[in-house]
């Protein structure tokens, strides 16, 4: 009798380092000061190792004066090897993005006229945080010709999904990412979820799901990918 066992899920490997080497510009979008680092920090470090000529625009949409310092110091550390870096920390009202959406939309319109990034990292569309969802929606509308990778943020709401795009990262880059997070964001140390084991656990789970050689990966949601 033929086997009735379900076939294992197929995985196809994309030459991510080759992609990075062909990508001159990257745009990183975060609603809050530590979002980019949590969501894709190790991937950013890997991209920069693969392409030292990379030009990066790093945009945080909400902050106060104290957290702005943290955000800029962290971004400078993550982007230390970039050929060019442009770090912008804005002051749109946190937790109210949908209610000041017209202003943020105008900001994105200006970004779209200024930048033509090869890859855009942003929040995922199904994130339960209203600020995160709006950024993803505007990124999708503004940067239609870019590879859009939507990262994930662990949180109280438990809204982690089933990503379909994985970037393998070795333990060295994971340690660097987590070290920067704990070093540059002391204002977050009293948060019950802002711990090293939180960050390690998600890297490990995504590594298991994608059979990462190192055991660690960052994961993204990619709505549309075109093979040239």
The main sheet orders its strands as 3-2-1-4-5
Average of per-residue pLDDT values: 92
CATH architecture: 3-Layer(aba) Sandwich
- Name of the CATH superfamily: LmbE-like
* Beginning-to-end CA distance, first to last residue: 42 Å
Structural class: alpha/beta
CATH topology grouping: Rossmann fold
Q: How many whole angstroms does the radius of gyration measure? A: 17 Å
Number of domains: 1
Q: Pick out the low-confidence regions.
A: 1-7
How much helix is in the residues? 25-40%
Q: Would you report the number of β strands?
A: 7
Outline: globular
Question: Main β-sheet, in a few words?
Answer: 5 strands, parallel
Helical segment count:
7
Q: Indicate the proportion of strand residues.
A: 15-25%
CATH class value: Alpha Beta
Folded structure, characterized:
The termini are far apart. Residues 1-7 have low confidence and may be disordered. The protein is built from 7 helices and 7 strands. The chain is globular, with a radius of gyration of 17 Å. Helix 2 packs across helix 6 (171-184) and helix 6 (171-184) packs antiparallel against helix 7. The chain is of the alpha/beta class and 228 residues long. The chain has one domain (16-220): Rossmann fold. It has a 5-stranded parallel β-sheet with strand order 3-2-1-4-5, with helices on both faces.
Write the layout of secondary structure elements.
Elements: H1 16-21, E1 25-30, H2 35-50, E2 55-60, H3 65-78, E3 84-89, H4 101-114, E4 119-123, H5 130-142, E5 147-151, E6 165-168, H6 171-184, H7 196-209, E7 217-220
Parallel strand pairs: 1-2, 1-4, 2-3, 4-5
Antiparallel strand pairs: 6-7
Helix pairs in contact: 2-6, 3-6, 4-5, 6-7
């Amino acid at each position: 009798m033929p086997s009735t066992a379900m076939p294992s899920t197929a995985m196809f490997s994309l030459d991510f380092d080759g992609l990075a080497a062909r990508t001159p510009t990257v745009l990183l979008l975060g609603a809050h000061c530590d979002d980019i680092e949590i969501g894709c920090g190790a991937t950013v470090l890997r991209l920069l190792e693969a392409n030292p000529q990379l030009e990066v625009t790093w945009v945080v949409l909400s902050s106060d004066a104290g957290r702005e310092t943290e955000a800029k110091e962290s971004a400078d550390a993550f982007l230390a090897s970039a050929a060019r870096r442009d770090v912008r920390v804005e002051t749109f009202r946190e937790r109210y993005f949908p209610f000041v959406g017209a202003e943020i939309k105008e900001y994105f319109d200006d970004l779209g006229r200024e930048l033509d990034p090869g890859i855009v990292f942003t929040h995922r569309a199904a994130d339960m945080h209203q600020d995160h969802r709006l950024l993803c929606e505007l990124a999708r509308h503004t940067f239609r010709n870019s590879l859009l990778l939507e990262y994930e943020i662990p949180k109280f709401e438990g809204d982690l999904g089933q990503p379909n795009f994985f970037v393998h990262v070795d333990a060295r880059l994971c340690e660097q990412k987590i070290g920067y997070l704990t070093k540059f964001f002391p204002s977050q140390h009293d948060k019950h979820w802002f711990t090293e084991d939180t960050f390690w656990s998600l890297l490990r789970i995504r590594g298991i799901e994608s059979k990462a050689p190192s055991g660690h990966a960052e994961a993204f949601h990619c709505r549309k990918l075109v093979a040239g």
